[in-house]
Amino acid sequence: MGILLGTFRQNGYAQRYTLTQILDSIEMNNPGLQQFSLKTAASFADGKAAKAWMAPTVGIGLSEFPYGSAKNMSSGLMPRKMLMLRLQQMFPNFSRQNKEQAYAESFVNQNKDDSATMRNMLFSQAKMAYYDAYVAEKKLAVLGQQEKQIQLFIQISEGRLPYGKATLPDIYKARAKHSDLQVMQIQLQSITEASVAILNSLMNRDPEDSLSIDTTINAGSFDPAMLAIDSAYVARSRSDITRISDEINSLKLHKEVITSQSKPTFGISLDNMRMNSGGYMYSAMATMSIPIVPWFSRGYHAKAKAIDYQVQAMDKMQDNQVQEALGQIQRDWLKLQAAQKDIRIFKDEVIPAYAKTYQSYLNAFSENTGDVYETLMAWDELTMKRMQYWDKISGLLNIRVILETEMQRD
C-alpha cells in the first residue's frame, strides 16, 4: 500500500516511490552529485596540459663584431654591425611530464571519494525524511482509529446524559480529547509536507510535486553483520577515510614531480645574422640546465621533506578516524539492539496490556456498569501508548540511518 504525501496536482496523481527509487533518483538527478563528473573531466584535462611543451622564444636585435672602435683594433678589422634573429626552444623532460600527468589525474580518485561522501550524506537525509513521513502516516492511522472510538464514546455519553448515566464534565473532557487528536493530526500532516519538500529537493524535483511512499516496509528488520566490521572494513568502505589514502597518494606523486626537478632540461638556440655587406652568419647552440647547484637544489629538497611530514601526519589522522568510526559504529549498534528489544517488549506486552484494560472498561461502560471517567482515561492511555510505540520506531529508524551512514551502506 502507499500513503499520499503532499497535495495533488490539478490534472494528475502522486507518483508512488519506494525508498530505493528515491535513492536512485537522488543519485541520478541531484546537482550536488553531478558536479563531480565535471571535476573529474577537469582533472583529466589538467593531465593533458602536463604534456605541453614550453613555447619557443624569438628575439631580434643588433650584433657587432669585433666589439669596440676601429682605432683600438690591433688587427685592423673594421667593426661590423649585423641584424640578428634568434630562435630558441627548450625541450621538456618527458619523465617529469609523465609524473605531472599522473599527479594531475590522481585527483580523479579524490573526486570519486568526495562524490561517495556526499552521496552518503544525501542518502542519510533522504532516509530521515522518508522515515519521518512513514512514522507520521502510521501515527495518523492510529489517530484515525482512536478518533472513531472517541466519537462513538461521545455519542453514547450524550445519549445517556438525560438518564444520569453520564455527566457534562465527562462529555466536555471527551470533546477536548477529540480536539487534541485533531491538533495532533495537523502537526503530523505538517511533518509529511516537510518530508515531501526535502525529498523533492534532494531529487531535484519541483517542491510542490506530490508523491506517495511505501508503508509496507518492515521498520524493525535491520541486523548488520557486526562481526565483519573491523578497521580494514572501515578503511576500505568509508569514502571520507579512503580519501585520505588518495590524498596521500597524490602527495607522493607530487613529491615525484618535485624531485624530478633534479634532472636537467635541454634546449637549442639558433642565431641568424645579416651583415651590412649583405653576407650572413649563423650560430647554433645547445643549452642544458644545471639543477644540482646548491642555491637551487635546496628548494626542491626542502619541499620534498615537507611532503614527507605531511604524509606522516595524514597517516596518523587516518588511523585516528578509523578508530573513531569503529567506536561510533559499535556504540550505535548496541543502541540499535537495545532499541529493538525495547520495541519488542513494548509491542508484545505493554500495548496489549493497555488495550485489554481499555477493553474491560469499555465493556463495563457498554453494560452501564462502568465509569465514564475511567473509560476515558483508559482510552487516553492506550492512545498515548500506541503513539509512543511509533516514537520508539522513529528512534530505532534514526539509529538505523546513523548506523548505515557510519558504515556507508545503502
* Helix fraction bin: 55-70%
The first-level CATH class is given as Mainly Alpha
Count of DSSP-assigned helices:
9
Tell me the span between the first and last alpha carbons.
23 Å
Rg, rounded, reads 39 Å
Quote the beta fraction: 5-15%
Structural class by SSE content: alpha+beta
Summarize the structure in words.
The chain is of the alpha+beta class and 410 residues long. The chain has one domain: Outer membrane efflux proteins (OEP), CATH 1.20.1600.10. The protein is 65% helix and 12% strand. It has nine helices and seven strands. It has helices at residues 19-29, 31-49, 94-105, 107-160, 168-202, 231-237, 239-259, 294-366, 372-407; strands spanning 2-5, 15-17, 57-65, 80-91, 211-214, 266-275, 280-288. The strands form two sheets. Strands 3-4-6-7 form a four-stranded antiparallel beta sheet, with no helix packed on it. The longest helix has 73 residues, at 294-366. The chain starts with a strand and ends with a helix.
